[in-house]
Write a structure and sequence with these properties.
DNA-binding, 0% strand, 199 residues, homotetramer, 9 helices
Chain lengths: 199, 199, 199, 199
DNA sequence: GATGAATGAGTCTTCATTCAT
DNA sequence: GATGAATGAAGACTCATTCAT
């Protein structure tokens, strides 16, 4: 439910090694607090302390609390985006089934790596006033699936891609929430839903 | 991401008409703020003002801020739970297809009635330290679906019911988020996913 | 050097006696700190403490630190404005000399009552982004002098009134700064400057 | 409203050309920020950046933020002081009127050169804990005027010089504040006030 | 019971100053 | 000497909750 224009971008990208370490430490600290205690517990003092830096340093890199969380969203979305893009690129001359399996691997492993964090970041996305670029990362994934479906002559690929992304997310989120860890099992079930939908 | 033991229940259920009106006004005010401005904007002073009562009165009914939101979750969960239960009861001697259509009607119309609120309440559920009873409401829905699937000899009904509830939620949430309003269209797509899964 | 749009008005005017006492206590505390330690020492915690109220209470009445100081400016400007207006009104059928003496009495006694405060408030005026109404209070005084000069056929009353107000302020400020306390002496010297200018 | 004993002097006067350039760049940067955004916006990081040096270098020359502003005050005061002194020296064998005109030229042009800066520096003077030497610069000007008045047998030259300096400042400040730029016009009006006073 | 004034712990953020490289 | 990353004390402001009237 974005509303106003809080600064949402890092103040500066680190150039030197030391600075990069500080930058990363801050992001990782925020991620840890987010997955352990939830959105409301992410406060700049706690993040700085866990990162082992002073608040002052935190504010050298991030102009607002929100910008830290937004950067975290960007970072994790980007990781997934790249997996999805390379899967779709790789799959251009493969069967639809093979490519979808690769995509589902990406989605499931991405969610299961740090399930609490993945869940919490979805919350953050809906709370923060994210900018176009960041929201575009999410859209990119839908777009890639649409490209894939089109290439394989699936009818109404726009609607189908949106629904598939949504249902996969639904099942994978629920699995993460239920603290399931068996990726193969989850994969099998998501697979059933996706291919059922497409059948 | 529940953490500590904040009071999560109303201080007392209203007995008299006037008290009930106040109680409801507070819940509705919280709902309005939640759907309009999001979780972070729900604060007791704002809720009391919008409800047209003093903070003092608000605290007569609700011991903590969390108890207001928790009660809101309970209320909306309950509405859905009752629709689901009656659908399943009614469907005991109908075809699986007919009953599932009824369930999906319930789910879709529930979400689309106040889509912003439905979405926000899901956030609240994941932020608040809800108690067993409240969480049980969610479980009840899964249980009902499982009963239904069992009654129709679907294999592995436990897993299937969880997945179906999850994928329906995934698609319906995404539709709400995308501000779609055509319930019939959404129903058709969710239907495709569910029956595809079951096929 | 006003720049942006900080809130500059009280959140609410007190209605009850207790509230009025709090409101006044806050203004007086701000005034005391201002005259004793200067603009930079006026901070909301210090003001609240000296006023004997909590920061929370302070913020019930004043939305920003600036709004406290702005209200203080308004209050003191208003006092002077009223003295000036009544002097000019009273003087409509008197000689110019008599009326100017009355005005100078007002100006000198106003400045000498709390000289440090008067000086500090002039600083505040130049630092704060005051609104039109507040700035109009200052203008009112020039306007009144202009009316007076016009009524007595002084040539170029607009320029003269501005210059007279400015030179009076210059001398009276300097006297306050030099911790002079003999109002009669100051009056005599300001008188000499004003009548010299008009001669 | 001086309070404590912050270091108020440069760490060292620059001896080499490059150091002098840095020193001046810092002062000029502070002046620019002061006149553009006001006292509260003068912070050491901003000054260093605008001056094109690192904070570290800034602190090589100035031990505290205050010392920068104090030096700025000293610098501009000194410029005026020298004009005043040479005017008075030159005027020793001229008429009072001629000399005063020269003094007023100095005062008016000094103020109108960078009016925002002149005004801001007056604020700084009243905020900063300036030391005796610096305050003495102001006194020097009064003293010079007193010498002049004495030399021309004006009665009570001490009081008169203080009043004249004060009323000139009052009118000239007001003109600067009103963004007037016609130096001749201002000169004419100040002249009227001064000679009126002396008449 | 109802009111709303009062409380103060908790957060965000800035900026003068230091110091390792 | 110069650099700029790091520090942390200080200050503005919010909001859940209490309690005198």
């Amino acid at each position: 439910m974005p509303k106003d224009q809080t600064a949402i971008h890092p103040r500066k990208r680190p150039r030197q090694a030391r600075a990069a370490a500080t930058f990363d430490a801050i992001l990782e600290a925020a991620a840890r607090i987010l997955e352990k205690d939830g959105f409301d517990s992410v406060n700049t003092n706690a993040v700085a302390e866990l990162a082992g830096v002073s608040v002052g340093s935190l504010y050298q890199y991030f102009p607002t609390k929100e910008s830290i969380l937004a950067e975290l969203v960007r970072f994790y979305r980007n990781v997934l985006k790249e997996k999805v893009e390379s899967a779709v690129a790789w799959g251009m001359d493969k069967t639809l089934e093979e490519t979808i399996d690769l995509l589902l691997d990406a989605a499931v492993s991405h969610q299961l790596e740090r399930p609490e964090l993945a869940l919490a970041l979805e919350q953050v996305e809906s709370i923060l006033p994210l900018d176009k670029e960041t929201l575009a990362l999410t859209q990119t994934m839908v777009d890639n699936v649409e490209m894939l479906l089109s290439a394989h002559n699936v009818s109404n690929p726009g609607e189908a891609s949106r629904d598939i992304v949504a249902l996969v997310r639904g099942i994978v989120d629920a699995a993460g929430l239920a603290k399931e860890v068996d990726q193969a099992a989850i994969h099998r079930r998501v697979r059933r839903a996706v291919f059922g939908y497409l059948a």
